[in-house]
Amino acid sequence: MIIDVNGFQLHYDERGGGEPLLLLHGGSGIGGDWKAVFTAGDPHGFRVIVPDLRGHGRSTNPSLAFTFRQAAHDMFALLDHLGIQGVKAIGLSMGAKTLLHMATLQPDRVDAMVLVSATPYFPAQARAAMAQLSVDAFSDVDWDTQRQRHTHGDDQIRC
Fold it and tell me: Which of 6, 61, 85, 100 could be disulfide-bonded to 55 (CB atoms 3.0-4.6 Å)?
């Protein structure tokens, strides 16, 4: 499914029934990555909601900007669209940081959360190392892989 929220098109999948469970992928990931975690299928007894975060996968990002706070607002807009007040959630890395923002912005809407590889702050040494990472170092195989995962072209991958 695709909905228009906060100035962009947000893609998400929704499966199953029961309590809502929001799954948020990591940076340069896509919602489909959760299939590698839940290899036997979605967790039983949950209404699983799996978005592609802004600028990832099949979601657009016309502004070319990304903040964890904005991603949290995007997820609240998705939950509002689905008529969900409270949610359990699992976030990986970038998704976990998004969950931290969700929990501080509207704590009554996050019933429980699991954070995987989250940090509330990157020290200067980590920021310097991350600044050295560049798509310019991608091999042809890396580019092919990313193009299959992110459907809005090379500009999306570069952001």
Answer: 61
Distance separating alpha carbons of residues 130 and 151, to the nearest angstrom = 24
Distance (Å, whole) CA 127 – CA 6 = 28
Quickly tell me which residue has 């839940």 as its tokens. 38
158: closest CA among 55, 72, 32, 58? 55
Quote the pTM value.
0.87
Residue 148's Cβ-count burial label (10 Å; 0-12, 13-18, 19+) is exposed
- Chain Cα centroid distance, residue 52: 5
Strands in 2-5's sheet, in edge-to-edge order, are 2-5, 8-15, 46-51, 19-24, 87-92, 110-116
95-129: per-residue pLDDT in tens?
999 999 999 999 999 999 999 998 877 788 887 88
Per CATH, the number for 2-122 is 3.40.50.1820
